[in-house]
């Protein structure tokens, strides 16, 4: 019996030695293949070869090989090109009819899945929806306690407005009710003023293009329509009394660079894009400046201040990039507009901001793919 265990121990030692030599040889052979350690297409660094043998070695080695196998970038592009050709999709982009492009998911936001939004496969459970409402309503009540009314708005995903350009395999599966609809419905039931643009956009798209073909964002005209919708709702709330919205007197197309969808790795469509330029029935009088990060207030993000000399009411907007085509015209109607970028904020001094800026109205903007941000508590404990 003793001899048996000695033999088994010897075999184990040789096996461990052979495994170690195999690892060394593999690492040496890989060193002969030039591996470029740079950012991958999904905005992260590739995994490196494990530094030492451990229980985690198999998982670490697997991650290393997946990120660094020879010709990885070319093979990923070829894979995406094949999926685009056969199914109209790659890992992040859906290429639809007439080369219209839609986000499939957002690289930096694993919670964001626009296809799931479109298909209605990610609805909130009643318990989760109630939890989100408790968080958001607590923030809304705090804004109101500090003297500001609140309006919540949900700009739609592009595929929601233009399903006819989606691949056939998805087009007829568009959900009639989405999780953003769940949020809007729950907020309205609690008396919160809530604005969406879906019905208006579906009608207006017959006349003008409202979203860019190669970009996730709406056109300048789409942003203008959103401004008109917000203007009307703000007047219903008692704001902007005696004012009239800006009217377009001239609308022209112009060529522009291709958008964020086109810039995603593995997309293979012709690059051409256009947008609108507009002139209004009166000159704009407001001015805007980027104030940067404030040394006296910890917001975690830059802010923008717009001032209109002859107006008195104050607006504060917590927003994302979809408000870029709204605030240049909406700011014209407020004496002061403060714009805070949602996705870069950590909100530690929000109450201090509200007390200093004293807004009459706060707009909380949640673009549909970022609607999960309602789970973020805006006001932290003071």
Spell out the blueprint of helices and strands.
Blueprint lengths: L1 H30 L25 H12 L3 H16 L5 E3 L5 E3 L10 H6 L6 H20 L3 E6 L3 H4 L6 H4 L7 H11 L3 E4 L1 H7 L15 H17 L11 E8 L18 E7 L6 E6 L10 E5 L6 E6 L7 H4 L5 E6 L8 H8 L3 E5 L17
Parallel strand pairs: 3-4, 3-11, 9-10, 9-11
Antiparallel strand pairs: 1-2, 5-6, 7-8, 8-10
How would you describe this structure to a colleague?
A hairpin with a 5-residue loop joins strand 1 and strand 2 (101-103). It is built from twelve helices and eleven strands. With 382 residues, it is an alpha/beta fold. 36% of the residues lie in helices and 15% in strands. The chain folds into two domains: 2-70, no CATH class; 125-248 and 280-375, no CATH class. The model is unreliable at 26-44 (pLDDT under 50). The protein has a seven-stranded mixed beta sheet, with helices on both faces. The chain has a two-stranded antiparallel sheet with strand order 1-2. A two-stranded antiparallel sheet has the order 5-6. It is globular. The N and C termini lie far apart (71 Å).
């Amino acid at each position: 019996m003793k001899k048996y265990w000695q033999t088994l121990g010897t075999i184990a030692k040789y096996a461990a030695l052979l495994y170690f030599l195999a690892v060394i040889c593999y690492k040496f052979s890989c060193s002969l293949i030039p591996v470029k350690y740079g950012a991958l297409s999904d905005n992260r660094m590739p995994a490196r070869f494990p530094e030492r043998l451990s229980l985690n070695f198999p998982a670490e080695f697997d991650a290393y090989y997946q990120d660094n196998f020879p010709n990885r970038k070319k093979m990923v592009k070829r894979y995406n090109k094949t999926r685009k050709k056969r199914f109209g999709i790659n890992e992040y982009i859906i290429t639809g009819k007439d080369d219209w492009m839609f986000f499939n998911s957002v690289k930096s936001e694993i919670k964001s899945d626009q296809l799931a939004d479109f298909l209605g496969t990610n609805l909130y459970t009643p318990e989760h929806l109630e939890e989100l409402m408790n968080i958001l309503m607590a923030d809304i009540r705090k804004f109101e306690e500090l003297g500001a009314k609140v309006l919540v708005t949900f700009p739609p995903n592009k595929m929601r407005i233009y399903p006819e350009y989606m691949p056939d395999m998805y087009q007829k599966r568009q959900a009639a009710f989405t999780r953003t609809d769940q949020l809007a419905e729950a907020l309205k039931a609690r008396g919160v003023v809530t604005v969406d643009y879906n019905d208006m956009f579906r009608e207006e798209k017959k006349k003008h293009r409202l979203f860019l073909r190669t970009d996730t964002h709406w056109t300048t005209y789409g942003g203008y329509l959103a401004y008109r919708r917000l203007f009307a709702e703000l007047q219903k709330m008692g704001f902007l009394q005696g004012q009239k919205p800006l009217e377009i007197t001239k609308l022209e197309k112009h060529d522009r660079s291709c958008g964020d969808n086109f810039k995603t790795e593995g997309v293979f469509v012709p690059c051409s894009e256009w947008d609108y330029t507009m002139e209004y029935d009166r000159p704009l009088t407001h001015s805007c400046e980027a104030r940067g990060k404030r040394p006296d207030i910890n917001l975690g993000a830059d802010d923008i201040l717009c001032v209109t000399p002859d107006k008195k009411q104050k607006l504060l907007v917590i927003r994302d990039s979809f408000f870029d085509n709204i605030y240049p015209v909406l700011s014209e109607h407020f004496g002061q507009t403060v714009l805070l970028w949602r996705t870069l904020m950590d909100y530690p001094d929000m109450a201090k901001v509200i007390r200093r800026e004293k807004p009459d109205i706060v707009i909380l903007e949640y673009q549909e793919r970022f609607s999960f941000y309602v789970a973020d508590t805006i006001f932290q404990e003071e």
